[in-house]
Amino acid sequence: MHFKLDPRGVFALYVQHRSPRKKSASQKSDERKVEMWTRVLRGLKDPHTISLGEWERFIAARKCGEIDARGNEVESEKRRPVRDRAVEADCKWLHWVFNWASKWRTGGTYLMRENPIRGFEGPTEKNPHRPVATQDRFEDVRAVSDRVMMETRWGKRQTVRSYLSELLEIANGTGRRISAICQLTFDDLQLDEGGPFGSIRWPADTDKTGRETVVPMSPGVRSAMDRIQNDRPGIGAVPLFPSPEDPQKHVTRHLADKWLRKGERMAKWHRRRAAFGTPTAASGLRSESTSQTLTWRLLVAGRP
Questions:
Q1: Is there a domain that residue 83 lies in?
Q2: 257 shares a domain with 143
Q3: Which of 13, 127, 247, 280 is the most buried (most CB within 10 A)?
Q4: pLDDT tens-digit profile of 213-266?
Q5: Same domain (yes/no): 146, 102
Q6: Domains in the chain: how many in total?
Q7: Beta-strand runs (E) in the chain
Q8: Is residue 94 part of a domain?
Q9: 261-282 pLDDT, tens per residue?
Q10: Bridge-based pairing state of the strands 158-161 and 189-190
Q11: What domain range is 50 assigned to?
Q12: Among candidate residues 113, 31, 42, 102, the one with its CA nearest the CA of residue 70
């Protein structure tokens, strides 16, 4: 069973239940996208009936500047082309909302029975080429990362080792964005399933394609997880990397970036790079045959 709601109703529940978990900038972005998609889908009584033709017409209109970022029609003489990346972000947001709605329920009833635009393709813009650091660079920063400290404010203030070491190991071993790693919870760890070293469940809302995946851990990633369990054991929805200011919140990627910069200075790596990268050969992980893994994409904007 599912609720009978129009798109406006789905968006309202998403903003009520999901948006508050985001940062203020992301909440404002949600408000803008709600306004845009409400106008684009006006008159649609059931979101399940969105057609591929309607989807493609939106993309074409958005790309040529026929409609603006809030869904308003733009006069022909004022229209300006919109980059594929911006249109892609608008399309992905709707995917994320419908994925969430197909999993969110109350009283045993799902908000939507399925994501009606699953499989609909949107525009893509290739990422600009970013430098990938050598394994030597990773190892040099990792050698000093245990000395990068942070101050916790959970009751009595104290200075302790930061999470940089574990973040580096997990990023280097999985190829995931740092923002996705920071959002992990203990619920996402499957230490006895999915492979000889266990596996990680990556939630859909941390994935660029909006899909939940379960990926086996490499020995290095499992070692980092064991260290976390030993230092600060937790269960359920408790953040794997809690904020130094509030243990109920996740550490931000911006603070992780700050720790990385400090580690680079300590390791004498002064030239700023946007990523650490290594090819990975472990079964189930990204391999060199696909592309060299980019693992610390700190300069890429965060996703919803």
A1: yes
A2: yes
A3: 280
A4: 899 999 999 999 999 999 999 999 999 999 999 999 999 999 999 999 999 899
A5: no
A6: 2
A7: 105-106, 109-110, 149-152, 158-161, 189-190, 199-202, 213-216
A8: yes
A9: 999 899 886 444 434 444 443 3
A10: unpaired
A11: 7-110
A12: 31
